[in-house]
């Protein structure tokens, strides 16, 4: 294998004080960084390819520490319902899709948010029946924790007025009649029914999207049997280019352990609550805009502790989805009685007492900065006072809590620069109220990039996320220096090329990197 010399500004890592450590070049031999400094080409022990990076910089590959890989691929084929601002528009999109597909085929969509609808209500099955009476339709809310289906989809899956709520889920009924709205585990009644053939194709599609965004490692959440099968097949055929660290859905009864450089089973995943958007995140105090509910708590601390014990026995981590403060409290109390191996997914609302506890237990947190922009209604959900502790990234860092950033794709786009932008600006440029209420929680660009590169691998004890000598050469070349651009430009940073173990796995069209 030829060596690879990269001439240009290379970010090796961040020092103890969080300052970037730069070099003038890097040599890669056998997929590993072997030298950092000027004239790397002269240090090569064999034939060497040379890349000159003139305008941009070289950064360690990003780790997206919480994404849904197969769903990301699937979502790229779905109706994109983000920013749809009325039920009428939703119906138009569904009806156009029905014409395109012909009768009988499933219409899947994702991303709607009733808060944006000018009708001021949730969509129901009758709306969808009008738009597509002869196609089964399932449209998942932006958060993934609620959905609306039409009558045909409901009857194909055997859901009617007499169907009881599944454990951890809600089939909405009005005067005894199903409305078509499904929440939490009830969404799975239909989505698992929808045939997901060719899942490998979706994984490959997701992989392309990740690599073109500069993500070289992804912590894949809630992997089920079919996704695991697809991932294993691709791994055994040598088709994985992005590193995948899998957290298997807790409901999967049995699976084979896999450990390669590209696919590795590292944990189990459980849900303790839902989302703010669907008012199913579990809160200590009722929702400010609906005092009749505190959300849904799906697991008590005892049940979490039991899951944790099982994960420990298998030598795996337990990734625990907890968005509301009540859910987080349950996780913390379960973690106290264990020897570790817990990581918190989201931790979206973390008041000071829980930040202290997370810090004492050094529980790692995987959180999604882009939620700050998407949850633009958060102040009305939580009220001003509680919003102060929504997405408290800086407080996490000052309390030495390991914070790794992620997208939760397809909930948010998998492009990490969207996350970096959100962490650094917190909705200031969008005029969001949370920007004022939580202005002390903004991160520097250094901190945000560090959370997106270093911490994810650290949680798993992996030698990734930096480009020190001896580390695998997973790196990205971006078109500008993110430490020098105005903050509004952070979301415009473009990836020119991505390398994993020194091998080019993505290159943007028209980029001219070679000598
Ligand atoms: Zn998720």
Quick rundown:
This protein has helices at residues 69-75, 87-101, 125-131, 151-156, 185-191, 199-212, 225-236, 301-313, 325-336, 352-360, 371-374, 378-387, 393-398, 416-425, 433-437, 445-453, 455-459, and strands at residues 3-14, 20-29, 32-36, 48-52, 57-60, 62-67, 79-80, 107-112, 137-141, 146-149, 169-174, 177-184, 215-223, 243-249, 263-271, 317-322, 342-346, 365-367, 403-405, 475-478, 495-500, 503-507.
Tally of individual helices: 17
Spans where pLDDT lies below 50 across 5 or more residues: none
Share of β-strand residues: 25-35%
The total tally of domains equals 3
Q: Which word captures the global form?
A: globular
CATH topology of the largest domain: TIM Barrel
Tally of strands:
22
State the CATH superfamily name of the largest domain: Metal-dependent hydrolases
Average residue-wise pLDDT: 94
Q: Give the termini distance in whole angstroms.
A: 20 Å
CATH C-level class of the largest domain is Alpha Beta
Keywords:
single chain, 515 residues, alpha/beta, Urease, subunit C, domain 1, TIM Barrel, Diaminopimelate Epimerase, Chain A, domain 1, 3 domains, 6-stranded mixed sheet, 22 strands, 25% strand, binds zinc ion
Structure description:
The structure is a single chain. The chain folds into three domains: 3-61 and 470-507, Urease, subunit C, domain 1, CATH 2.30.40; 65-69 and 197-459, Metal-dependent hydrolases (TIM Barrel, Alpha-Beta Barrel), CATH 3.20.20; 79-191, Diaminopimelate Epimerase, Chain A, domain 1 (Roll), CATH 3.10.310. It contains 17 helices and 22 strands. The longest helix is centred in the first third of the chain and has 15 residues, at 87-101. Strands 6-13-14-15-16-17-18-19 form an eight-stranded parallel beta sheet. It has helices at residues 69-75, 87-101, 125-131, 151-156, 185-191, 199-212, 225-236, 301-313, 325-336, 352-360, 371-374, 378-387, 393-398, 416-425, 433-437, 445-453, 455-459; strands spanning 3-14, 20-29, 32-36, 48-52, 57-60, 62-67, 79-80, 107-112, 137-141, 146-149, 169-174, 177-184, 215-223, 243-249, 263-271, 317-322, 342-346, 365-367, 403-405, 475-478, 495-500, 503-507. α2 (87-101) packs across α3, α8 packs across α9 and α14 runs antiparallel to α16. It is globular and about 80 Å long. α3 links the parallel β8 (107-112) and β9 (137-141). Helix content is 29%, strand content 25%. By secondary structure, the chain is an alpha/beta fold. Zinc ion binds at residues 66, 68, 221, 408.
């Amino acid at each position: 294998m030829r060596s690879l010399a990269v001439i240009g500004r290379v970010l090796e890592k961040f020092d103890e004080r969080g300052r970037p450590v730069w070099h003038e070049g890097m040599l890669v031999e056998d997929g590993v960084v072997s030298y950092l400094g000027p004239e790397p080409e002269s240090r090569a022990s064999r034939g060497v390819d040379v890349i000159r990076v003139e305008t941009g910089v070289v950064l360690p590959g990003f780790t997206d520490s919480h994404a849904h890989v197969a769903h990301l691929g699937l979502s790229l084929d779905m109706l994109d319902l983000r920013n749809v601002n009325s039920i009428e528009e939703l119906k138009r999109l569904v009806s156009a899709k029905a014409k395109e597909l012909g009768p009988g085929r499933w219409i899947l969509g994702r991303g709607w948010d009733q808060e944006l609808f000018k009708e001021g209500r949730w969509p129901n099955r009758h709306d969808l029946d009008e738009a597509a009476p002869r196609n089964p339709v399932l449209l998942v809310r932006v958060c993934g924790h609620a959905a609306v289906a039409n009558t045909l989809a409901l009857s194909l899956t055997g859901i009617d007025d007499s169907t009881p709520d599944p454990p951890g889920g809600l089939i909405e009924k009005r005067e005894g009649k199903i409305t078509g709205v499904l929440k939490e585990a009830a969404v799975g009644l239909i989505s698992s029914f929808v045939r997901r053939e060719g899942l490998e194709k979706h994984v490959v599609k997701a992989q392309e999207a990740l690599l073109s965004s500069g993500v070289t490692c992804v912590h894949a959440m809630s992997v089920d049997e079919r996704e695991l099968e697809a991932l294993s097949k691709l791994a055994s055929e040598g088709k994985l280019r992005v590193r995948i660290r899998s957290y298997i859905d807790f409901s999967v009864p049995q699976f084979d352990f896999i450990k390669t450089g590209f696919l590795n089973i590292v944990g189990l995943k459980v849900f303790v609550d839902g989302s703010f958007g669907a008012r199913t995140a579990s809160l200590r105090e009722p929702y400010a805009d609906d005092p009749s509910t505190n959300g849904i708590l799906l697991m008590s601390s005892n049940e979490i502790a039991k899951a944790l014990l099982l994960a420990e026995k298998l030598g795996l981590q337990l990734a625990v989805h907890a968005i509301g403060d009540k859910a987080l409290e349950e996780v913390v109390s379960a973690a106290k009685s264990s020897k570790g191996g817990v990581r918190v997914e989201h931790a979206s609302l973390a008041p000071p007492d829980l930040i202290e506890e997370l810090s004492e237990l050094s529980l790692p947190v995987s959180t999604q900065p882009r939620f700050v922009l998407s949850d633009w209604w958060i102040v009305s959900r939580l009220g001003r006072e509680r919003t102060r502790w929504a997405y408290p990234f800086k407080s996490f860092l000052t309390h030495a809590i390991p914070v790794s950033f992620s997208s939760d794709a397809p909930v948010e786009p998998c492009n990490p620069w969207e996350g970096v932008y959100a962490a650094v600006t917190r909705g200031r440029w969008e005029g969001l109220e949370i920007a004022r209420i939580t202005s002390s929680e903004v991160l520097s660009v250094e901190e945000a990039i560090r959370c997106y590169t270093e911490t994810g691998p650290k949680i798993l004890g992996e030698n990734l996320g930096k480009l020190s000598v001896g580390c695998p050469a997973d790196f990205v070349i971006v078109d500008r220096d993110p430490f020098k651009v105005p903050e509004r430009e952070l979301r415009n940073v473009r990836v020119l090329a991505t390398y994993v173990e020194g091998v080019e796995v993505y290159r943007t069209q028209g980029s001219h990197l070679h000598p």
